[in-house]
Automatic annotation (TrEMBL):
One of its GO terms (cellular component) is membrane. Its main location: membrane. Pfam families: Aa_trans (PF01490). Residues 1-27, 81-108 are annotated as: Disordered. Residues 133-512 form the Amino acid transporter transmembrane domain. It is found in: Membrane. It comes from Glonium stellatum. This is Amino acid transporter.
Amino acid sequence: MASAGGIGILASGGVDPRMSTDAGRPRPIIPQERLLHDPAVTFDEYRYYAERTRAEEEEAAKLPGPKKGILQIIFPPKNGPSVVRVNSGNSPPGGEDEKRGTSTSGNTNLARRDLRLTITDEEWTNASRAMRTATWAACFYLITTDVLGPFGIGFAIGTLGWGPGIGLFTAFGLAAGYGGYLLWMTFLGLDSYEFPLRNYGDLAFRIYGTIPRYFVNVLQSVQLLCSVGLIVISNGQALSQVSKFRLCYAVCCLIWAICGFAIGQVRTLQRFGWLANLAIWINLITMFISMGVISHSPPNYGVAAFGSAGATTVPADVTPVNGVFPAVKHYAGLPDPSSLVGSINGLMQGVYAYGGAQLFIEFMAEMRRPRDFIKAMWSAQAFIYLMYMFYGLFCYGYQGQYVYSLAYLGVSPYGWQTVGNMLAVLSGIIAAALYGNIGIKVLYNNVLMDIFAAPPLTTKPGKILWAVIVPVYWSIAYIVAAAIPDFFGLVSVVAAFCAVQFTYSFPPILALGFLIHKGAMQDGEGFDPATGATVHHDSGPRRWLRGFLRGPWYFSVLNVVHAGAALATAGLGAYAAITGMIAAFKQPQVNAFSCHSPLDSS
C-alpha cells in the first residue's frame, strides 16, 4: 500500500494502486492527472519532484541575468519576471508567451481535472513557474510589513521591567527566526513545479494529511479575517479621534472598508512589494516623530489610566495625588510580581510582535527562487528586532510607567497625536490589504478551486472573479468586526489560539513530521518515476522511531521541546486574553454600527 497524504503517511508503505494503463502496460499517473489535494500522492513523490525543482532553480540561478543596482533592491519593481524559461512549443522562442512568462495553458482552467489532461508536462510546470515572480527583496519588505508593529513594545517593556523585557523579546525573536527557518526547510523539501505548495495548509497536508490541512486552513482564515477587521476598526477609531468625534463612528470605519475594496485588487505579492516598502517607511517616520516628541514633552497623563503600563500592573503609579501625577519611574524586574495577568499581557506583546509566520508559506510560494527566502527572513527579523528594542527602550526610558499601549498616542500634544494617528492609519491599511490578499488566496485555493473548480488567478476569468471577491471579503471582515462588542478582546483570544501557533507551535511540529519521514528512508525505498510506485519495507511505530532517531535525534528532541513550550505560552496567552475579555464585558460595550466612538468619554 502506498504511503498517502494522511495520518497514515507515517505508518504505510508499498505501491500506489492508482495506475493508468498504456497499451496494456502500467504507466505512472502524471501530476496533472492528480486531484488538487490528492491523498494518493506519497511523501516520497513530493520529495522527488521537489529535489528536481530545486536542481532546476540552481541551474537557472547560474544563467546571466539583468544586473540590479542598489535602488532596484531598495525599491523593488511592481512587476517581476517569472521563472518560466521553457518554451511551450506552440509559440516561437522570444514570442509573446515567453516574454510574459506564460504558456498555452495560461487560459486553461487547471482546477478542472478533465481540462488538465489536455495540456503537456511542459505547460503544466510552466503554469506553476508563471506564478513565481517575487524576489527576496520584495519578500523582505513583505515580511517586515507583516511583522513590524513596534508601537506596543514600550508598553510591553513597561509591564515587564528592563531585565525581563529585554530578555523575553530577545528569546522570542530568536524563536520566531528558528520557526521561520523550519518552515523554509520543509517548504524546500516538498514544493515543486509539478506539485506547488500554495499555503500553510498544503504543507500540513503533505506531512500529516487531510484533517490537519482543514484545521490549519480554518485557523489561518479566522486569524486573517479578524486581522483585516481589526485594522478597519482601529483605523476607524483613529479617524474618529482625529475628527474630534464630529464624524459618525460607523462612517469612520466604513471608509476604510471601502478603501480595502480598491487596494485589495493587487493580486501578486511582487506587485505588493512597493506598497510594503511604503508601509515600512511610514512606520519608521512615525517612530522617529514620536521619539522626538516624547523626548521634549511630558507623557500624556490624560490617557494614563486607560492603556498605560502602570494602569496594567501598578495603578497607583499613574493615579494623581492632590491633582499631581507621580514622577516617571522604572523597574529593573516585574513591576508587580503578584499581577499575573498584567505580566502575561506584557509577555504576549513580545510573542505577538513576531507573529507573522502564518504568511511565510504564501511568500515562498510566489518567489522565483524560494531558497533565497532565508536571506529575506533573517534580514527582516534582524531589522525588526533592532527597531523593536531601540524604540521600546527609548519610549520606556522617557515615559516609564506612563508609556501607552500605542506609543504615538502617548504623546501629549494633540497635533502630534494626530500625525501619529494618520501615519499609522496609512501603514495599517497596507498591512490589512496584505492580510486580505493572503486570506482570499487561502479561500480561493482551498474552497473555490478545490471544490468548485474555479479558474486559476493567472487566467482572465480568475482575475475577474478575484475583483468580485475582494469587496465581499472586506465587507464580511468589516461586518464581523463591527458587530462584536469588545472586538479587540476577541482578537486577543484569536491571537492566542492562532498567531502563536503559526509562528511558534506549528513550525516545529511540521518539521518533526518532515524529519521523521525523511529519516525513516532505507536503501531500496522511495518513489520510482518510471513506474509511479512508492516502496517502503516497513511501517508503523518502528518506522516512526527510526525516523525520529535519524532526524537527527537531537534536532527532533529540540522540536518537541520547542513545540511544547510554544503550546504552554499559547495557553497562558489564552488565559490572560479570556480573563481580560470577561472583565471588559462587565461594562457596556459599543460596536462599530454606532455613531458614538468608544474613545469618546463624553
